[in-house]
Amino acid sequence: MNYKRQRHMMFSLLVIMIAAMFLSACGAARPALVQGKTNIVTSFYPLYDFASKIGGQHVNVVNLVPAGVEPHEWTPKGRDIKTLKDAEVFVYLGAGFEGWVGDTLNSLEKDAKVQVVEASKGLTLLPGIEEEGHADDHGHNHKEDAHEAEFDPHVWLSPVNAKQLAQNIKDALVKADPSHQADYEANFKQLSGKLDQLHDKFKQQLSKTSKKEIVVTHQSFGYLAKEYGLTQKAIMGLAPDAEPTSKDMKEILSFIKDNNVTYIFFEELVSDKLAKTLAKDAKVETLVLSPLEGLTEEQAKQGMDYVSIMESNLNNLVKALQ
Ligand SMILES: [Zn+2]
């Protein structure tokens, strides 16, 4: 082989390698729709988890909000909306959780083939907080987001509600792909059995704790608290962006003292700065309580899911409420 030819081959190889790198990088960046499967696009993690478990091998599920990202402030890009429109099923929560969903659905053509599912349909919603806004010196209202919310959207944090969400997803799948109805029913039965067990564990273990008061990062545990007789005090509002005022912080500190609270809960997708500051001031400890709005990249790698994270939530609740 002469030198020139060898050089030419090396160059071709390099081109192929670079092309392969580009292709795999694009593939990894955004999971695409798959032909021959029922494609389901979900708006955030718990819906993704339930759709994957119920659909099993017959479906390809694409979650819009990636691991490590907090969904309250997330909005779709053009390519997300295209993926959603080309899918067979689109599942969103509703109850005001996805602020972007109204405009997106309005932009769908009348004859769009995607079946749209509002997973929270049929659930009894708790009202959003009607708290007085605290205007600061600049007239900026820190709790304006909380002020606007008509409902508390965090329904999935009660396992009883989670079962209803799963049922709505199952019904939509059966409608979209009736040929695999038997498998969808069987997978749903297995999942709902696990959710029943989870509910029993929560009920049993939380009925025995001496304390009932929890201090959390954002006001996301209303349905869980109602289901198991707890009282939540949140540092932030219904979304983890409403900054508390110094008056709010004082009020939370006295709540901690009055109720002998020994742990403050923080979340992994939101800065723990406020929780840590409060804990330091009140001389108490911190623990994780996940609102399951998304997984961290680590949790996704470890294969954790709704049920396993709720179980670690229960362990931490029991520890904090002894
Ligand atoms: Zn939330």
Structure description:
The protein is α/β, with parallel strands linked by helices and about 325 residues long. It folds into two domains: about 170 residues, 3-Layer(aba) Sandwich (Rossmann fold), CATH 3.40.50.1980; about 120 residues, Nitrogenase molybdenum iron protein domain (Rossmann fold). It has twelve helices and ten strands. A four-stranded parallel sheet has the order 2-1-3-4, with helices on both faces. Strands 5-6 form a two-stranded antiparallel sheet. α6 packs antiparallel against α7. About 5% of the residues have low confidence. The site of zinc ion has 7 residues, from loops.
Keywords summarizing the entry:
322 residues; alpha/beta; Rossmann fold; 2 domains; 4-stranded parallel beta sheet; two-stranded antiparallel sheet; globular; binds zinc ion
Helix-strand blueprint:
Elements: H1 3-29, E1 38-42, H2 45-55, E2 59-63, H3 78-86, E3 89-92, H4 101-106, E4 115-118, E5 126-127, H5 144-148, E6 151-152, H6 159-176, H7 181-207, E7 213-216, H8 222-228, E8 231-234, H9 246-258, E9 263-266, H10 273-282, E10 285-288, H11 297-301, H12 306-321
Parallel strand pairs: 1-2, 1-3, 3-4, 7-8, 9-10
Antiparallel strand pairs: 5-6
Helix pairs in contact: 2-6, 2-7, 6-7, 7-12
The structure holds zinc ion.
Number of helical stretches of at least 4 residues: 12
CATH H-level name of the largest domain... which superfamily? Nitrogenase molybdenum iron protein domain
**Overall 3D geometry?**
globular
What proportion of the residues is helical, as a percent range? Answer: 40-55%
N/C terminus separation: 78 Å
Which molecules are bound besides the chains?
zinc ion
> How much strand content do the residues show?
5-15%
Largest β-sheet summary? 4 strands, parallel
Order of H and E elements: HEHEHEHEEHEHHEHEHEHEHH
Average pLDDT over all residues: 89
Count of beta strands:
10
